Sequence to fold (173 residues):
Amino acid sequence: MLKIAIGSLALVALIGCGGGQSAEPAQAGTTADILNQKDLVETAESAGAFSTLVSALKAAELVSTLKGPGPFTVFAPTDEAFAKLPADQLKALMQNKDKLRQVLAYHIVAGRVSARDVAGMSSATTMAGPALSIDTASGVKVNEATVVQPDVMASNGVIHVIDAVLVPPTSLR
Fold:
């Protein structure tokens, strides 16, 4: 009984000291990161703002990749970002698995790239091949999208929430 009580107190102390939200983004390997055992897909699903992205990942058969060990960095467009696309264009994209895979892979970078790392970059090579342009002069822009929430940590990577769908270069269309 004493062991259970001590273990419970230790867990409460751990959560109280490092498991809650803080003003600083969580960094890989911190208590907040360790307590978040959800992978990238589970993290996106539980956030509630990425249902279109998750549906697209399923349609493109990329879920198993983003549930894998990674690590990956995902520049994740919200449902509002997808809603900015014309409905017929989004429908056509969702029905063309090859094109959808290319568009989604253009949102993924190999490795765990935190906001701190992004601040020192001018570009990042995507899993689709071409690089994303990164501008940190006024906030953080990835191509024409603005990062609205950085460093959403997952067990196998990090999500940076963006306000637009990234469109690959003409060579991928």
About this structure: Confidence is low (pLDDT under 50) at residues 1-31. The chain has nine helices and seven strands. Strands lie at 72-77, 108-110, 123-125, 131-135, 141-142, 145-154, 157-162. The domain at 36-172 is CATH 2.30.180.10 (FAS1 domain).
